[in-house]
């Protein structure tokens, strides 16, 4: 470890929660060195049992460590194990850093040693001892636990959050799916703007030199209420091809009896009703209509046009308060308490249908039979064909969980992810590390995906005021 000090490398002491959050974090510290206290290995061993995501990550970390140690003897382990370069995984590239495992107790200096034998204090004492042994080296504790980071700084040890899973440095940079054009943009194009119709769809084209970079299925609008509203489709022979969007605010374009109440809701319905769009993400605060729009579009396409066999709804079961414990019944019955928002929206959609009380009751029964509720715990290994899959409260999912769910899509399936990144209930996830943020950023360049950030609350004036003031 003296060689590490001479070369100016940093030494990162990893907390257990970093490894459980991202097993590949072992390979993501570039040229710097990593130190794993013995307490971290003990906690990994305790977390490996079960079928949860945390248990799977613990076992994956153990496999990575086993591959790194291989046949190394104690002397080689004390000298540090060579870490592969981050982009190469486990093999093939020159070492970019070294992994040190604690092989013996480290003496802690003086009165700064923390009392007790709690795992956190043990890790802090180890980091403190490393700093005392190597005063010229930058020893930094990396942890997802904010309280541990506070304690670390109190005793004089540098501490950082794990940032490698952060999609963006600032959540305000997240793609919104819309772009406002400057005043007079269309008038300034002159003869360069071409227009034609094809099967009742209106298209426009502009030279790419007249247009800034755009993302597929990005919506464009002017500052005026009557300005053109277009969606960017593709680049063809040096031309940007734009299509006029359908106005779902007009009653003649109602979807399952629902009309859009603002511009962004109309754009969302354009994506949800487009058979060429396979993946849609809807972000927005409470009451902006994310789940209601997704359900209305799913019911219209599964019951009216028969494009999909059925609507499937799932969500992460993260409680807002204390957990109420085990729930009896079948998979669907166990999920019902988590699906209050779904039932509320189904009630609204059944009331939009014409007819008397008997007709609306029959419609409500039909909707509950055609909308299937499924638990995420049983999604692995499944494949959905010709289904309309809604992932609600997707902000509580990690990037790995989102990948597992999205890859369940078979031929003819459409996936809609709804969420509010300002309401994350999962520990160790933030707005910039949420799996929903990750998918919005990664799918923005795909021609068969679309995204809209809903801005205006339409639930009620009380809910809208509460979102703004509370």
Describe this structure in words.
The structure is a single chain. The chain has helices at residues 2-6, 16-21, 38-47, 53-69, 74-79, 119-133, 146-154, 263-272, 290-304, 331-335, 340-351, 357-370, 399-406, 435-443, 461-469, and strands at residues 11-14, 33-36, 81-83, 97-101, 139-142, 158-160, 178-180, 194-198, 201-207, 219-221, 229-236, 239-244, 279-284, 310-315, 371-373, 387-392, 414-419, 449-454. With 470 residues, it is α/β, with parallel strands linked by helices. The strands form 3 sheets. A 6-stranded mixed β-sheet has the order 3-4-2-1-5-6. Strands 7-10-11-12-9-8 form a 6-stranded mixed β-sheet, with no helix packed on it. It folds into 3 domains: 2-160, 5'-nuclease (Rossmann fold, 3-Layer(aba) Sandwich); 171-244, no CATH class; 261-469, Rossmann fold.
The CA-CA distance between the termini, in Å, is 51 Å
Largest sheet: 6 strands, mixed
**Helix count, DSSP H or I runs of 4 or more residues:** 15
**Which regions have little confidence, pLDDT < 50, spanning 5+ residues?**
2-6, 88-93, 319-324
How many structural domains can be distinguished in the coordinates? 3
Share of residues in helices: 25-40%
CATH class of the largest domain: Alpha Beta
* Secondary structure: number of strands: 18
- Shape category: elongated
